[in-house]
Amino acid sequence: MIEKVHIDPVLGEVTLRKSTRSRRISIRVHPSRGILVTVPFFTPYAMGVAFLESRREWARAALARAAARNADLPEGEDIESLRAAAKAYLPDRLRLLAKQYGFVFNRVAIKHNTSNWGSCSSKGNINLNLNLMRVPRPLQDYILLHELTHLRQANHGPVFHAELERLLADHFDRNREAPDFQSFLPKIAASRAQYPVSYTLERALKTYRPV
Ligand SMILES: [Zn+2]
């Protein structure tokens, strides 16, 4: 993947990125990283710039919306208190779930980033985002179970999803009396009829963006 910075007179710094996977030009607005224009690998950057200019008004509005959303989110000390709360809670919760479902991981670390809720390395080290402290417990547990499942399946293939669905079914059943799980149960039941439960939880998570 190769990139280039372009300065737009209205939008400021814009990242142009060539992608071998994309077949058309696209624009994304990221709250902290700004505007990203992806162009197919063999398309000149200039076409990406022209495309952006044709949608400048839309991009300007999207950027303003992203900035406004960010304004009421915690920063500074709040991040530090989230970190302290995350360190006090998440490793214990992960250990509990690992024990319950027969997983053995190596280390757990609390991280702060905006790109993922968690990750699991091939060495069995699990990273959890401190932003998980801002989401309801059923969604937290979903992420923890997702990362634990990676200890058995490194990819997101059908075997991974089947295993994760099995764990989620058991976990929601086990916790059906817990008040914070109860509000999710109708959603889970409706999902089961149509979509994998992880799909529904993933959608619910989208309303809690990491900051
Ligand atoms: Zn994953």
Helix content: 40-55%
Structural class: alpha/beta
* Strand order within the widest beta sheet: 1-2-4-3
Task: Give the overall pLDDT as a whole number.
Answer: 90
- In N-to-C order, the SSE pattern is EEEEHHHEEEHHHHH
Q: Name the hetero compounds present.
A: zinc ion
**Principal-axes shape call:** elongated
Textual characterization of the structure:
There is one protein chain. With 211 residues, the protein is an alpha/beta fold. It has helices at residues 45-54, 56-71, 77-101, 137-150, 158-174, 179-182, 185-194, 197-205; strands at 2-8, 12-19, 26-30, 34-40, 108-111, 118-120, 126-129. The strands form two sheets. Strands 1-2-4-3 form a four-stranded mixed beta sheet. A three-stranded mixed beta sheet has the order 5-7-6, covered by helices on one side. Helix 3 (77-101) crosses helix 4 (137-150), helix 4 packs antiparallel against helix 5 (158-174) and helix 7 (185-194) packs across helix 8 (197-205). The protein is elongated. Zinc ion (ZN) binds next to helix 4.
Briefly characterize the structure.
Helix content is 50%, strand content 18%. With 211 residues, it is α/β, with parallel strands linked by helices.
Q: Which key terms come to mind for this protein?
A:
8 helices, 211 residues, three-stranded mixed beta sheet, four-stranded mixed beta sheet, single chain, binds zinc ion, alpha/beta, 50% helix
